[in-house]
Amino acid sequence: MFEGVLLGIRVVVFDTMQARNIYRLGYYGKPLGIPKPKGTEFSAPLELGLIEAVYLAENGLLNVYSTKGERIDLEYLRKYALSIIPRFSELYVVYKDLRDKGYIVRSGLKYGSDFVVYEKGPGLEHAPYLVHVVRAYDQIDPLEIVRAGRLGHSVRKDFVLALVYPGDKISYLLFEWSKP
Q: What is the pLDDT of residue 152?
């Protein structure tokens, strides 16, 4: 069981051996101070996002503690993430679904999307997908889809819209460019 400390919007694993082992499991988190780690042999703490931390805790791989050393249970961690992250419920259900299917899921912030998704992992390939998460019955501005699709095309990634329905059902829509 790995151990991390809740610090604001992150959970930090300070033990570098544990940090490397979590990262090896599926490219979870980011080593502090190392923007693009080359492999898994780094000597730095690991910073996990709240979505990753909830997923690892839910799967019995991570215990989270407060800065005072008190164990934080999964339900509290989930409620905390809900209070901090807009759309946490929808984002988490898609993250969990993709991870459970064997994909490597990372933040897509630098691409203006919710997630970038790898089949093999960062450093082994370029992420083939940008994923944007929306509630299935929300209205979507068509220009938003065009912008996201053009961005995905310009960085050579397929744009995927993940529609989350009540009851946490998900549909994925893959957009491809075509010339008339």
A: 65
